[in-house]
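Good day; I would like, with your permission, to put a structural problem before you. What I wish to show you is a protein chain and, alongside it, a tokenised description of its three-dimensional fold. I would ask you to consider whether the tokens describe a fold that such a sequence might reasonably adopt. You will find the record immediately after this paragraph:
***
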Amino acid sequence: MAEDQKLTKKQLKAQNFRKSKDEKTEEKKRPLQSEPKEPETGHAEPAVKKRKTRRGKGGKGKVDSNGNRFLVFVGSLPKGITESELQAHFKTSSPDVIRLRPDKNIAFLEFDGKKDPSTIQRRMDIALLQHGTQLKGKKINVELTVGGGGNSQQRLEKLRQKNDKLSEERATRMKALIQDSRAKKTSAEDESRVVQGVHPDRAKLLQ
């Protein structure tokens, strides 16, 4: 009985060893299971897109950002006109910038209001007085304009109102010049008549 019991213990030990070995082998054969991912609780913030700036790094141009740019349009320019010739023709108005478009025979005179606000209106008026003057044998057009380009109805209406007002101012100015010229002529004629009826020595004293 003791031997049977001893053998039984050995058998039990062998069985336990074999069982342990088999379990290890079985665990190696099992595929590794990936750990479950934690559910996303929050929404990822979308990447902020950078807005592209217009006209280079400064967005809108420096002149536009100031909002103090005043333009005068010059049309019907002779072919082959140069910027220096335009500068000489408009020297009395002293535009700050001249943008010449030789392909269209036009130009734009820019007046910077921030540079000298006290004289900008007078300088623009002087430039506008060049309307109808001769440049290299050709009569040019000088008109007010607004920046932005395009042919939108709002822009065209704004241009029409500006140039209508300019035409009225030109007519008023021309009428005043004619009246002033007539007054000076009448005054000169009256003085001449008075001098003619006076002794030469007396006339010299009156002069």
